[in-house]
Amino acid sequence: MSATFLALEQESCLDVRDRRREQPALDNAFNFLRAHSFALAFALYACGVVLVAGASTALAVAALVMLALAAAVVTASQKRKFLILLLCMLGVGETAACAALWRADHRAYDRLEGRHVVIEGVALERPRLLETASVRVRIVALRSPTNGVDTGLAGEVALVTFPAGGTRPLAGERVVVRARLGLPGGPRNDGEPGERETLADQGVSVILVAHRAADVRSLGEAQGWEAWWARARAAVATAVEAHLPPLEATVLEGILWGDRGNLPLTLRQEFSDTGTVHVLTTAGLHLGIMAGFMAWVLALAPIARPARVCVMLAGAWFYTALAGMHLPTVRAATMLTAGIAALELGRGRTASAIFAAAAFAVALPHPLVILSPSFSMSFACVVGIALVSPILAALGLREDCGLPKIVVEVGRTSLAVQIALWPLQALYFGAFTPYAVVANAIVVPLVGLIMAVGSLFAVSALAVPPLAVPLGNIVWWGLTLIIAAVQFFASLPAAHVDLPPPSHLFLAAYWCALAALFVAVRRGAPWRHVALGSLAGAVLLFLIYCLPGLAALADRNIHLDAIDVGQADCLLIRAPGGHAMLVDGGGRLERTSFGAVVAAPLGDRVATRTVMPFLLRHWVLHLDAVVLTHPHGDHVGGLPVILSREPVDAVYDSAQQYSGPAYHHALEVMDERHIRWIRALRGMTFDLGPTTHVQVLAPELPFITGTSSDINNNSVVLRVTFGHIAMLLTGDAQSEAEARLLSHGRTDLRADILKVGHHGSAYSSTPDFLAAVHPKIAIISCGLHNVFGHPSPLTLAALKAGGAQVYRTDLDGGVSVISDGLNIHTKSINVDNRSF
Q1: What are phi and psi of 122, to 5 degrees?
Q2: CA–CA distance, 709 with 539 (Å, rounded to integer)
Q3: Quick one: which of 259, 277, 220 has its CA closest to 458?
Q4: How far, in Å, are 453, 552, 576, 750, 824 from residue 819 at the CA level?
Q5: Surface-to-core class of residue 828, CB atoms within 10 Å of its CB (0-12 exposed, 13-18 middle, 19+ buried)
Q6: I want to staple 762 with a disulfide (CB 3.0 to 4.6 A). Which of 263, 450, 616, 792 is the partner?
């Protein structure tokens, strides 16, 4: 079928220009599509995959029916044949997606999920140390349980996590691991990427959680090419680290082979804020630089062109292996190989055909890769350069503009890439980086220099140490310039602008607008018409982009979102009129070596990766109030990030004395941003717009003392009313706090929706309290397999005995409750929608 499309394209390219003036506009459009039929075939294949995997079966069937009807209506034989072929490609994409989804849901080792296993494998890298140690392991054999049935685990890659203590396995060693087996899950909250997709880019298909460092034992060096490569990478990394300071060594390792595990979180965020984090991930940019460098060197040698191409491709795959064979790098190498093969074999008469050949090479064996951010962003870069660079040249950014040629080329390419990428950056990362054009224009050329010199330095550091000294000095200066440039641009005002993600309708309209502008410029349309069309298109795109926000503003329902933040709390109330309140900000607790519970490091990733993206996806661009129920790290840990990035009118706090660093950091951010701080006490009330009323039921003075956790028992307790619906949000209130609430009578406690106190522990939710509240819906926020054993079976039994429908974020994912003031609807990631 691909050969058919290429034949159609080549036939059309010969006569389309001669006949263009003689044919009506519709025929011209048809011939234009035929001239790019191979690219259109991939577009239909990709649409089929997206419709099945990312949309719905109904839409997939509707698309097939519409295309079939179009083919039936058209009378011209050539056009009908063309439409039938497109229909076939759409069907192939849908079929491939269905098959891939079926395979993902029917793996032999799925039945081992949650069980303890003993596996033997090969460590593919050095362990990474964050909160725990982790290492990727290629599974060789399953030692236990063994029942004579093939589980299909052999050959899979597991992410092994274990306590960061004791002896750790080295790269390339054979290891035995005793751990609980888990499968990477899907999305935990509405609209966010799943762990399955995130780990898939690392080739990881299972997770093994070892409870003790001793559960991961080394058996010595493993055999095989993969083990040898792992040892070689580790040896080169060790040699690099011996010749460079730790920070520069980490950045170099990120640039050369994508290992940025030891990069400080602050510097990683600065790379992200300047739009340059891609230089630390080995993918298309790095492979293109390496291939271009090799092509330049080989061009100096008296070697025939076919031999040069073969050597260059071999070098590209060698670099891919050195980078660890991560999927983004493998995809880039596959696309490079397919594109060059199409060009060299004379099958790529147009640039679009080369792009399509590269895309098919990746997406045919792995259809779901089309949905991955790395795939879409890689192709957006290439297509963006092809479409936008000619537009920028026509606007005056060309070689004869008076600037040096290298400056023009770098500036035009950088600007074209950023114009193509910013919608995808907003879609996947919820951010716009205004200084990315200039930052990349400086950083990317330096990366090219460092990759060339750094490769020689890395080899010489291992094999010829005296030569490593002068090369190391050059590399150090280059890395210092990169770090300084990144830190400078990150320090500028508005370096990171939070943006709600665009809809798929906007993305389609945006790329259609770029294509239309490209065609208008190439055909020499009058600039007045181009300018007016661009202005009209920009206004239309802005309206399309804002449609979800306008819909949220017009929504007359109230929403309670229990955001899944693991073993922590974070609730969002979205009231009519765009009003919103956040109750706690998530975070994390960790146990020290002496058993105390303390806050996790500041700037918790939960806020950056979960809470802020959730707010942006729902167009919550302003918070009327933030309520901190109490200052424990699993409630306040994410607030410093949230308060520093989201406009907030006021923060309501229980005002308890607490020495946790996250709490004090949140207070510092409030002071820096001049956010109003209010001590929350019983009897206070405030509104979220004219229809939503919030009443503070606790704490009250004097504080409760002498309990197992006074901090928990003095949590802020809120009652939110909207129409005839009431919600009771209890923080981490335990039985003593519940008794005090009951002492004031039961009227204020009656609620349809209860956020269960203290993650559903046995210390809360007493029978008397639950009888007073008598909720229809009970929501428990807790983490999967948490060390505290939350929720307690006693609490679950008491809630069910009272007739409440129980939702748990550990099992159900994020939970949303929607009400019009009379009726209640619930939905969660893993549970079908229900009405009450």
Answers
A1: -120, 125
A2: 56
A3: 259
A4: 62, 14, 11, 17, 5
A5: buried
A6: 792
Residue 371 has pLDDT above 70, yes or no: yes
Give the pLDDT mean for 184-202.
Answer: 82
Instruction: Note the pTM of the prediction, 2 decimals.
Output: 0.86
In three-state form (DSSP H/G/I as H, E/B as E, the rest C), the secondary structure along 686-707 is EECCCCEEEEEEECCCCCCCCC
So what's the pLDDT on residue 555?
Answer: 94
Q: Is the dihedral of CA 401, 403, 409, 413 positive or negative?
A: negative
CA gap 190, 537 in Å, rounded: 31
Beta bridge partners of 225: none
Q: Parallel, antiparallel, or unpaired for β 805-808 and 777-780?
A: parallel
Alpha helices (H) along 181-326: 195-200, 225-243, 246-257, 265-273, 284-299, 305-322
- Of 35-39, 356-360, 607-611, 758-762, the range with the lowest mean pLDDT is 35-39
Residue-wise pLDDT tens digits, 667-693 = 999 999 999 999 999 999 999 999 999
The one-letter code for the residue type at 588 is R
Q: How many CB atoms lie within 10 A of CB 426?
A: 21
* Per-chain mean pLDDT for the chain: 83
* DSSP string for residues in 145-213: S--S---S-TT-EEEEEE-S-S--PPTTEEEEEEEEEE-----SSTTPPPHHHHHHTTTEEEEEE-SSG
Residue 252 Cα to chain centre, angstroms: 24
CA Rg, the chain, in Å? Answer: 29
Contact of 448 with 483, CB cutoff 8 Å: no
Q: Return the axis-axis angle of helices 504-522 and 373-394, rounded to nearest 10°.
A: 30
Quickly state the pLDDT bin for 755 (edges 50, 70, 90): very high
Look at residue 41 in the predicted model and tell me its pLDDT: 82
The SS3 of residue 755 is strand
DSSP-based helix, strand, coil % in the chain, nearest 5: 55, 15, 30
Alpha carbons 358 and 364: distance in angstroms, whole number: 10
The residue written with tokens 């891939």 in the block is 100
Q: Extract the tokens encoding 829.
A: 């990631």
* 78-88 tens-digit pLDDT: 666 767 777 77
- CB-hemisphere CA count at 13 Å for 751? 25
How far the first Cα of the chain sits from its last, in Å, is: 52
How far is 436 from 428, CA to CA, in rounded Å? 16
Beta-strand runs (E) in 413-526: 431-432, 497-498
At 19 the pLDDT is 46
pLDDT (tens digit, 9 = 90+) per residue, 596-628?
444 445 446 788 889 999 999 999 999 999 999
